[in-house]
């Protein structure tokens, strides 16, 4: 059995690249769900069983920080681990993300090896 | 601060990491010059200690080659995928610049990228901005990365 992954990024190109990086990293998964912003991500998490979330920070409608804040208030999804995957990796923004429950961060640009190094320990 | 070199470092890192392409960087240009015939421009606003705009200007053939490399498939028109991909290139270059500027204790906030496509357009900016631009070469042609900014610090 693999993993169910949710990719949250307003760039469809980046969602495809992250999905491909997961495959190249040899990470097995059953489903990759996609969302273009935090609002869509919350909708997916309400409906689907997701093991891990990879989320951008700068997005329209609901950004990654607001998504974390809202997710933390919903008991049914609070425990799902979230990794930020963003150009925004300054101590202040990542510190805020971690204070809201983010487990770690991957900086764009990234390679499949970087994705595997960060996510590998958290996936089945 | 050496913004021209920061642009070179930012762009070459993005292309080597994400696309396995070694860009050939030109000399940084300050002020006017270094234009490229562009069919797509992706830009994003910068706020904070540096206010302005970062733009990536590409001829169609270069933009399509970059997008093909990203997606692993042939691309034969300036479609939504191309606008999205070049926007993400601009976003990652700006993110790297933000990290470089943080090393000078210059804080920058990034907006969300926007892409425009056309045969004849001109991208303006705020009055009184400085301009630093770098031409980059890859197999399919050249593209330009341009920063127009006002430093408040």
Task: Describe it.
The complex is a heterodimer of chains A (124) and B (153). Chain A contains 5 helices and 5 strands. Chain A has a single domain, classed as Rossmann fold (3-Layer(aba) Sandwich). Chain A starts with a strand and ends in a 5-residue tail after the last helix. Chain A has a 5-stranded parallel beta sheet with strand order 2-1-3-4-5, with helices on both faces. Chain B has a single domain, classed as CheC-like (Chemotaxis protein chec, 3-Layer(aba) Sandwich). Helix content of chain B is 33%, strand content 32%. In chain B, strands 1, 2, 3, 4, 5, 6, 7 and 8 form an 8-stranded antiparallel beta sheet that branches. In chain B, strand 3 and strand 4 form a beta hairpin. In chain B, helix 1 crosses helix 3 and helix 2 packs across helix 3. The mean pLDDT of chain B is 92. At the A-B interface, helix 1 of A face helix 1, helix 2 and helix 3 of B.
Features:
heterodimer, A: 124 residues, alpha/beta, 5 strands, 23% strand, globular, B: alpha+beta, Chemotaxis protein chec, eight-stranded antiparallel β-sheet, 3 helices, 8 strands
Quick structural overview:
Chain A is an alpha/beta fold and 124 residues long.
Count of DSSP strands of chain A: 5
Alpha carbon gap, first and last residue of chain A = 8 Å
- Rg of chain A to the nearest angstrom? 13 Å
Oligomer: heterodimer
CATH class of chain A: Alpha Beta
- Content of β-strand of chain A: 15-25%
Low-confidence stretches of chain A: none
Order of helices and strands of chain A: EHEHEHEHEH
Shape of chain A: globular
